[in-house]
Design a protein that fits this description.
Elements (H helix, E strand, L loop, with lengths): L1 E2 L2 E2 L1 E2 L9 E6 H13 L8 E4 L4 E6 L13 E4 L18 E5 L6 E2 L2 H20 L2
Antiparallel strand pairs: 1-2, 3-9, 4-6, 4-7, 5-6, 5-8
Helix pairs in contact: 1-2
Length: 132
């Protein structure tokens, strides 16, 4: 699915069988999820957290990893371990679970929108920390 000015991919579309995952520290990721959810309702796709809740992973369209360069985050390909269409899909990354599972959030997050939200989240965190 492509919307004006924003590239999004439906999880059920075949290309998302190999979606990439952007991983960020949990605090920044939760701020970014809040920012994205305050925007256009469809701005945030499925999001995972690791077992230790140290990081969040945003599902993004395949090919994002090739050009991802946001400091403090990584973007990796799922190497074909994409999203299952089962009723309770397994996250594509071992040792993780869903914060926003497919179905509740059925679009892959637009990397341009995610980049902006992560930047805003970092600025909010920096401002909050400097007030202490």
């Amino acid at each position: 699915m492509v919307e004006a000015g924003m590239e999004t991919t439906r999880i059920s579309d075949p290309p998302c069988a190999a979606c990439d995952v952007v991983t960020v520290p949990t605090r920044q990721g939760l701020e970014a999820v809040d920012i994205l959810r305050r925007g256009d309702g469809d701005a945030v796709g499925p999001v995972m957290h690791d077992d230790g809740c140290d990081t969040l992973g945003f599902v993004v369209p395949p090919g994002t990893a090739a050009a991802w360069d946001v400091p403090g985050s990584t973007c990796t390909e799922t190497a074909g371990r994409g999203l299952s269409l089962a009723p309770a899909p397994e996250p594509p990354v071992q040792g993780s679970d869903w914060l926003l599972p497919p179905g509740e959030a059925d679009l892959a997050t637009d990397p341009v929108v995610l980049r902006a939200a992560l930047g805003e989240a970092a600025r909010l965190i920096e401002a909050a920390d400097s007030c202490r």
